[in-house]
Amino acid sequence: MSEKKSTFHGTAAQKAELQAVIEESKHIPGSLVHVLQRAQGIYGYLPIEVQTFIAEGMGVSLSEVYGVATFYSQFSLTPKGKHRISVCLGTACYVKGSDKILEAVEKELGIKCGECTEDGLFSIDSCRCVGACGLAPVMMIDDEVYGKLEPGKVKAIIAKYREA
Amino acid sequence: MTIKELDNIRASKKDLIAVRRLVKEEGEKLAKKTGYRKQVLVCGGTGCTSSHSMKVIERLEQTLAELGLDDVLVVKTGCFGLCSLGPIMIVYPEGAFYSQMTPEHAETVVRQHLVKGGSIVKELLYAGTVTESGDIIPFAETPFYKKQMRIALRNCGVIAPEDITEAIAAGDYAALEKALTTMTPDDVISEMLASGLRGRGGAGFPTGRKWSFAKASQGDVKYVCCNADEGDPGAFMDRSVLEGDPHCVLEAMAIAGYAIGSHYGYIYVRAEYPVAVERLNIAIDQAREYGLLGKNILGSGFDFDIEIRLGAGAFVCGEKTALMTSIEGHRGEPRPRPPLPAVKGLFGKPTILNNVETWANVNPIIMNGAAWFSSIGTESSSGTKVFALGGKITNVGLVEVPMGTTLREIVEEIGGGIPGGKKFKAAQTGGPSGGCIPASCIDTPIDYDSLIAIGSMMGSGGMIILDEDSCMVDISKFYLEFTADESCGKCTPCRIGTKRLLQLLTKITEGKGEPEDLDKIEELANHMKQSSLCALGQSAPNPVLSTMRYFRDEYEDHILRKECKAKVCKALMSYYIDPDKCRGCTLCARNCPVKAISGSVKQPHVIDRTKCVKCGLCESNCKFGAIERR
């Protein structure tokens, strides 16, 4: 587990919230995935400190927690941007050129898929199908879906979030 | 809840729902009895909400309130199917089908159509419902809907999914009532067996047999699971059922619980489907409140409850044993079979797992009988199949057709053909586990067995249409990238095999392929099919094998002539500006990220191929179609 030096700053309120989730879940069989989902909702990501806390609270080994956290693509061990951009690379979007949309986003922000900008404003991920295939190619920024995209439209869409 | 109370709910909303299913004249007569002069149904599925249908509803309600029109009912429904033209809105009893609505359009419709004495705003209707002479035809008679037969999607786009009373009035829970009051568990299973229903998740295993195995298994605790981890990128029928009619899934799971002797169910649903998850949660809460889940359902003494588990983004969890491992809270890795899940499944107990669309067929089978169901479709594949039609096709959306419908009918009639005058090249079915149906097989009747015979598979129902601009080698590489990424790594043939196949395909698309690579691909693919632990690895080579079977010439073009005829593979194409079409507007030069384009105002521009990174931004920006790929 060669994580970079941690920059984790959790608050007491976050810890209390997670503690409550662990308490209500630890007796339900198979609830580890659920607890990790809730933890990621609280902290935005799953740093090793949070995983350790969950392992102790649930009474399972850290390796079990880490194994599950690294198995599923929903979980991130590194922080995400304030605005999370997710470009759909599902088949319907791909055949309509979503790889070019992803490239345009990467060029516009100067980072690669999976990374976060230095100012912490944006992170880029790819996803497999948000189910809005009728609007292909699509990307999501936070909860907003942008459909029927072209590489030329990307710049203006991202600019809106820079100003906001 | 007693059966009498259930009947009362049905009676109270029967007419309201019937108006939405009837043709114009009868609907108008009935509408008078409902207290609502008009009903406006607006799609609240993911496709339409992504194009802002919630703002359409908001403006509708505002304008209706402003004009004091309290005899118009606005209903947020699930998917109507024609997703590419969303947001969609239908006004009953006329059945006026409005498409691509904006809040402004919605206001216009209220002021001109929904007011007393108003009339349909023809220019906002879906163009397919207006004939050349200007007559309006019912949407059910348009090419998109005419050949469809909605069994699994019967209530999608008809009811408000967040209102259990509408679901009950539309027929949900009637089959549960029938099973609990008039059928023994064995009756239910024989009905399912006789119906010939096969699993809609992809493998096509007979549902009734699965249930009978689980019933025969001894055990004090058994589980009923619903696979809603719709992983095929490009398939969205399960999501639409959950968003449009979540109660039909709960009901069917309870029926299965009664049949096999189980009292607990799990729905494993993708976290990426927030709308579906929310509606399922609402549906479960309402079903418990109405006593249709929980203890002593309908006074029968039968107990059944359901819990939701969210997937966390792993394609392999669509595989049944991996899904169960994931519900148990572990890394979602598959387990060797046997033992079969019907003997030893979730938490080591006998378990049945069916896919959402399969569950959606249970109510009609119990209500109308196995003979009715098996009369639809083909001999070996009864019933209908829902396809998520996407890619290079005019009518992108959800279609449900009887098994045995030909690909030609789906593409040319229902799908409205290929846009831009392009030629149909192939349909990809079954996603990363499936294969392609080339133009030469376009008249194949689609069912489980005919697709396997031509080297593809039904899969869960994703159907991506490809035209002459699609490169088959690139598509295979796309799927291998997916499976290599999603391979869980537990077994070697899949873990290493997907990586090696991907390397070979990447090499070919980069123009570095060698003739012997094709033999290597075939050899490796056969090893993977025979020795991988689960269906992911066993089927991962299918896209490559199937495209090599029908489009070997394209592979050879890439390898021997270093040519990509579709002009998709970057290493084998370059951008070029047609000097006759270029007007010298400078838009491309100003936006080129690597400053590869030069030229003066109003003079044809030129791309420096040594600098060009082939990002395609110039092509997307050019208003004159002057950028060509060569």
Give the helices and strands, then pairings.
The complex is a heterodimer of chains A (164) and B (630).
Chain A (H helix, E strand, L loop, with lengths): L11 H14 L6 H12 L4 H11 L3 H10 L11 E6 L2 H4 L3 H12 L12 E6 L11 E3 L2 E3 L7 H10 L1
Parallel strand pairs in A: 1-2
Antiparallel strand pairs in A: 1-3, 3-4
Chain B lengths: L2 H17 L4 H11 L3 E6 L2 H5 L2 H14 L5 E6 L11 E4 L3 E3 L4 H12 L28 H4 L17 H6 L4 H9 L2 H11 L11 H10 L6 E6 L8 H8 L1 H15 L3 E7 L3 H16 L15 E7 L8 H8 L23 E5 H5 L1 H7 L1 H5 L9 E8 L5 E6 L4 H8 L9 E6 L5 E4 L9 H6 L8 E6 L4 H15 L5 H18 L7 H15 L3 H5 L2 H9 L1 H9 L14 E3 L9 H5 L5 E2 L7 E2 L9 H5 L5 E3 L1
Parallel strand pairs in B: 1-2, 5-6, 5-8, 6-7, 9-13
Antiparallel strand pairs in B: 1-3, 3-4, 9-10, 11-12, 11-13, 14-17, 15-16
Helix pairs in contact in B: 1-2, 4-5, 8-12, 8-16, 9-10, 9-12, 11-12, 11-13, 20-21, 20-24, 21-22, 24-25
Question: Outline of this structure?
Answer:
Chain A has 164 residues and is of the alpha+beta class.
Give the count of structural domains of chain A.
Answer: 2
Remind me, CATH topology of the largest domain in chain A? Glutaredoxin
Task: Tell me, briefly, the overall form of chain A.
Answer: elongated
The description of the largest β-sheet of chain B is: 5 strands, mixed
User: What Rg of chain A is obtained from the alpha carbons, in whole angstroms?
Assistant: 18 Å
Number of H- or I-type helical stretches of chain A: 7
Helix/strand/pairing category of chain B: alpha/beta
User: What is the name of the CATH architecture of the largest domain in chain A?
Assistant: 3-Layer(aba) Sandwich
